[in-house]
Amino acid sequence: MQHDILGKTIKQARINHNLSQEQFAEVINCSTRHLIAIENEYKKPGYWLLYRIIRELKISPHSIFYPEIAENLSEKDELIELIRLCDERTIRIILAAVKESLKLKD
């Protein structure tokens, strides 16, 4: 298992959210230097900081704690994981689309 999976995962999620290290450090209430250490120097965050990071960046805990599972998810499992990260409006849209797709199948 890669030792730097946590830092890489956090960094990629932060970049995907178009946040600079300075901006994200402010959001999660930690110093920029500490965030840099987590992303690039194998520094491990404490529980509450990790919790805030996962929640703010909408990172699937599986991708951190079980990366081997996250890499081998079926399409159905991947969809379920992604839906868990959606807000209520997006879930309603997805639900409506799935229901319509199933009607077409009949």
Structure description:
The chain has two domains: 1-66, lambda repressor-like DNA-binding domains (434 Repressor (Amino-terminal Domain), Orthogonal Bundle), CATH 1.10.260; 73-106. It is 73% helix and 0% strand. It is built from eight helices and no strands. The chain has helices at 5-16, 21-27, 32-40, 47-57, 61-65, 67-71, 75-84, 88-105. The protein is elongated. The termini are far apart.
- Largest beta-sheet details: none
In CATH, the topology of the largest domain is named 434 Repressor (Amino-terminal Domain)
Secondary structure: number of strands: 0
Give the percentage of residues in beta strands: under 5%
What is the total domain count?
Answer: 2
The helix-strand sequence is: HHHHHHHH
Structural class comes to mainly alpha
Instruction: Count the DSSP helices.
Output: 8
Question: Features of this protein?
Answer:
434 Repressor (Amino-terminal Domain); 106 residues; single chain; mainly alpha
Q: How is this structure best summarized?
A:
The protein has 106 residues and is mainly α.
Blueprint (SSEs and pairs):
Layout: H1 5-16, H2 21-27, H3 32-40, H4 47-57, H5 61-65, H6 67-71, H7 75-84, H8 88-105
Helix pairs in contact: 1-3, 2-3
